[in-house]
């Protein structure tokens, strides 16, 4: 059961929202078999984004990244299921859309690394950190009271 509860943090970035890709992303994760356990739309504050991207603070593109991520609302989500972190990354494609295969979200919908439309956690540890940064535990749903046939 433990691995079925794995959760990943997925966020549709401002360009993904502006371009109307919210439904497409949700459809892909939902039909793949993951469970949506939390979702909110927000104009992310700079301090939240600085925490979220703390590992990149010294990179030359960091100011551009902050400007991009605060340019409009984002859709923050938590998806749950077996292998959610690793499979989520496979579904996203590579950081640089130019390296992303067709069939992945970045491979299908974008061309520029600085406008790559979606975020996904890169490890279970970073997923847990990111989820607690963006959501309160009480904001997340549990499917544990649902019939066993719901879980796979
Ligand atoms: P990922 O989003 O695939 O986990 P990352 O954590 O290395 O990639 O970087 C976070 C975001 O920063 C990435 O989605 C887009 C931006 N970024 C990364 N490398 C970049 C670069 N060389 N130039 C511009 N933006 C970059
Ligand atoms: Mg990353």
Automatic annotation (TrEMBL):
Molecular function in Gene Ontology? ATP binding; metal ion binding; nucleoside diphosphate kinase activity
Q: What is its EC number?
A: 2.7.4.6
Q: Fetch the SUPFAM superfamilies from UniProt.
A: Nucleoside diphosphate kinase, NDK
What does the entry list as the binding residues for ATP?
13, 61, 89, 95, 106, 116
Keywords, alphabetical: ATP-binding, Cell cycle, Cell projection, Cytoplasm, Kinase, Magnesium, Metal-binding, Nucleotide-binding, Nucleus, Phosphoprotein, Transferase
One of the GO BP terms on file: CTP biosynthetic process
Q: Reaction catalysed?
A: a 2'-deoxyribonucleoside 5'-diphosphate + ATP = a 2'-deoxyribonucleoside 5'-triphosphate + ADP; a ribonucleoside 5'-diphosphate + ATP = a ribonucleoside 5'-triphosphate + ADP
Domain Nucleoside diphosphate kinase-like: residue ranges: 5-142
Known cofactor(s): Mg(2+)
Q: What's in the GO CC field?
A: cytoplasm; lamellipodium; nucleus; ruffle
Q: Which Gene3D superfamilies match?
A: Nucleoside diphosphate kinase-like domain
Locate the active site: 119 (pros-phosphohistidine intermediate)
Q: Quick check: keyword Protease in the entry?
A: no
Tell me one Pfam family matched here: NDK
Subcellular location, principal: other
Q: Give its localization.
A: Cell projection, Lamellipodium; Cell projection, Ruffle; Cytoplasm; Nucleus
Family the entry assigns: Belongs to the NDK family.
Main function: Major role in the synthesis of nucleoside triphosphates other than ATP.
Entry protein name: Nucleoside diphosphate kinase
Give the organism the record lists: Notothenia coriiceps (black rockcod)
The gene from which this protein is expressed is LOC104963299
């Amino acid at each position: 059961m433990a691995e079925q509860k794995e959760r990943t943090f997925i966020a549709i970035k401002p360009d993904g929202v502006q371009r109307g890709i919210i439904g497409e992303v949700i459809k892909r994760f939902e039909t793949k078999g993951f469970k949506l356990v939390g979702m909110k739309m927000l104009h992310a504050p700079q301090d939240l984004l600085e925490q979220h991207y703390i590992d990149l603070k010294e990179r030359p593109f960091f100011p551009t990244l902050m400007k991009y991520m605060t340019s409009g609302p984002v859709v923050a989500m938590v998806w749950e299921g077996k292998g959610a972190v690793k499979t989520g990354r496979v579904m996203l494609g590579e950081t640089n859309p130019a390296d992303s295969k067709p069939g992945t979200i970045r491979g299908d919908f974008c061309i520029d690394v600085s406008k790559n439309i979606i975020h996904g956690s890169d490890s279970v540890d970073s997923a847990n950190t990111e989820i607690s940064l963006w959501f309160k535990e009480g904001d997340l749903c549990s499917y544990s009271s649902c019939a066993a046939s719901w879980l796979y």
